[in-house]
Amino acid sequence: MLLSDGRAALWCINAPREPGTHAVQATCVDDGTALLASVAAFNEAHSATTAFGTYPVVDVAPNGAIVVATSDFVVSVRAPETTDWRTLISICGLYYPIFSFSADGELGFALAEQTFAFTTRSPRALNLPRDFGVGAWHPSDPARAIRYERGELYGVDFRAFLAGADASSLRGQPLGPAPWRRTSAWSFQDDPDLLHWHPDGTILAATATHLYAARPGGPLLASHPLPELSGADPDGDYGFWEEIEGKGFVQRTLRDGAWAASMRIASPGAPKRSPDGRRAVVVQTPSASNPRPMTRPWETIAELGIVNVR
To answer: Which residue, 254, 251, 286, is CA-closest to 266?
Structure first.
């Protein structure tokens, strides 16, 4: 498991397989110098630092590429089997992107209110249509995705675009209204913050107020209202972690046509699941050393300044 600290260094731990609380050793695998230099160069600045709070955000693609957001919507990629960083996107005013990857890890989405796309092996940003909306990758076909825009779902194939077609090729094939749309007309209240394409073909969606499960062009399979001041974090094929303000997280899994509560964890951050799905890990240590912490001390965790894990 990779962990990031408030100075943009990356640390590696071996997460225990046994349930319970364990003390573990972390090994530094990247000191963050090259990463911050890449961010500075991209922004034509002399130097760069991480942002306040739980930055940097870190994730790892299935092909081994590492993706980090050091602040706002500043996205940098370290390609597989290299130590070189390339900063691809830098936008102020969008925060804490959520990363997702195609089945082979060669393509990635960065989501924060809207979707941005990039490649990971030869890192570059992809020019999506401005109205692409919120996207989710196909569970097995690395070139396909689904997207939501203004109440409608579309099936997208990246093959023509990657072969040189313009961005209009990514508008996709209409799949009909999103089944969770509550009125005949589009409403921003139905816009998902998160989408996930489950291997059985079900689309899992989290809006500001509900969790949904549906088939494209089919009926709504399940819905679950989120409490006020709550939220949801992704848990891949398992569903979502529902945040209970100040009390931790509840895992919501689709079961027998309902969003069942299958696990409760008193944790300041959503657990991270191992690639095989068998382990969910929460990393916490006694003190925080992020040089720019949030107001609430538990929002920055780890003795090493660790603030995000993957």
So the answer is: 251
3-class SS letters over 143-183:
CEEEEEECCEEEEEECHHHHCCCCHHHHCCEEEEECCCCCC
Each residue of 115-135: pLDDT tens digit?
999 999 999 999 999 889 999
Q: pTM here? A: 0.88
Distance of CA 119 to the CA centre of its chain: 15
Q: How many CB atoms lie within 10 A of CB 147?
A: 24
pLDDT of 291:
54
Cβ–Cβ < 8 Å for 225, 209: yes
Tens-digit pLDDT profile for residues 130-152: 889 999 999 999 999 999 999 99
CB distance 309 to 272 below 8 Å: yes
Secondary structure letter of residue 21 according to DSSP: -
DSSP 3-state of 297: helix
What SS3 state is found at 84?
A: coil
**Around Cβ 239, how many Cβ atoms within 10 Å?**
24
